[in-house]
Amino acid sequence: MLDNEVELFWKKRWNLAKCLFLWNRFHSLALNISTTAVYLHSRPSYNSPIYMSAMSVSGSSTQACDLLKTLSGASFIHWQDIGGPSGVLLTHIILELRLYAMYGSTRKMLFLFTIMTAIEAAVVFSLPLLHPLLERTNQPSPGVYICTTRARSNGSRVGGYWYAAVLIVETILLGFALAKAWQYRSSSEIQSPLMKQLTRDSLGYFLMLFWIYLANLVIWARDFTIVAEFGIPFGFALPSILANRLLIRIRATYFRSFPEPDVETYLPPLRFTTSNVPSSVVSTHSIYDGEPAAFNERLGI
């Protein structure tokens, strides 16, 4: 897979797909490494330098996690609240662009996905504004020391609503992919490697992530605080991994069908003719198995 990544992205010209791929790859890596560095110690809350800074001011282990918001850990808390949702939103943008190309890059689909992205962004980035309904604790259960977030006793299950919104978007995107596959089930287009690849990967992507998002939804809706932090990394890391694998597989399938010429050495032959050539043989690239309906060369996705 690393060889494909180098050949299909690092060595290719810059376009939107390459930017999204690299951003998605390193954003998720930075988010998970930073979270691990702070929390995953033998006694996470007590060994964390950020936590110790909060302890020195509060003098109480039960208040220290809340104070992370206002002391030296404030930037880290905001990084968690913004970094995680932005990673999920980025994977959905990748999937929406894939569907945009799959539906012929029409303005109607572009408008629809733009509206969907704007609404989803408004929902997922509202999480930092919901802190009055949440509280942080370093001991969700006796003997378990880890800074985690839970709903206040008089607060609503806002975390469950967040995962419900993500599940709704995932279901809509899957529906678009399956609807397109069903539309061309009896035509030659669905027989193309790229269309079959996209349909299969879209279904596999949804099925793999559906249970993770559903588990997180149940955890937050029922306020199972002791396990809340265990499902979050899976819900943020796996979507970015699978979205990048989807990009690699789609580009690999496409470029195997249409290898790019070497721009430094390739010179197209000159042909002069006055005869009427049937349009069906002029450009095999534009009619081969309906591939252009599933790949946007300008976006590279």
TrEMBL record:
Membrane-spanning residues? 109-130, 161-182, 203-221, 227-248
Q: Which residues form a coiled coil?
A: none
* Pfam family, any one: DUF6533
Q: Does the keyword Kinase apply?
A: no
Q: Which UniProt keywords apply?
A: Membrane, Transmembrane, Transmembrane helix
Positions of the DUF6533 domain: 1-26
Protein name, UniProt field: DUF6533 domain-containing protein
- Organism, scientific name: Lyophyllum shimeji (Hon-shimeji)
